[in-house]
């Protein structure tokens, strides 16, 4: 069994990833503000690199089966930076779904273990939705 050791670097990485998601959310709420969206993207990617390491991040994004997601996420990021935030977010969302679609079941199990939130997720309606889509990948 692989243990997940929580050192200071990984804690900082998780914090940066969380702030990246938060800033991206603020950017969408504030009518696709490109400053918030760009900051969210930078924080998310840097947090991911600090959490799993630079080498693992590069290997993940450079896998041949992840090329479509990597290219669309990168082009979406570039579109946000040059001032087309709506199209950039759409392209980034597609890339994010393609890249991280294999992690949804793992995320569901993690969320079920959170004290209050986990109780909501363990309700029969929600668990039936999770088990219905477990193991399926988004068609690419």
UniProtKB/TrEMBL annotation:
Keywords, alphabetical: Golgi apparatus, Membrane, Transmembrane, Transmembrane helix
Is tRNA processing tagged as a keyword? no
| Pfam families tied to this protein | Got1
Spell out the InterPro entries in the cross-references. Got1 (IPR045176), Vesicle_transpt_Got1/SFT2 (IPR007305)
| Membrane-crossing residue ranges in chain numbering | 12-32, 38-57, 69-87, 93-111
Could you tell me the Gene Ontology terms of the biological process aspect for this record? Answer: endoplasmic reticulum to Golgi vesicle-mediated transport; retrograde transport, endosome to Golgi
Membrane association type: Multi-pass membrane protein
Its localization reads: Golgi apparatus membrane
Any GO CC annotation of this UniProt entry: Golgi membrane
Family listed:
Belongs to the GOT1 family.
- Protein known as: Got1/Sft2-like vescicle transport protein family
Originating species = Rhynchospora pubera
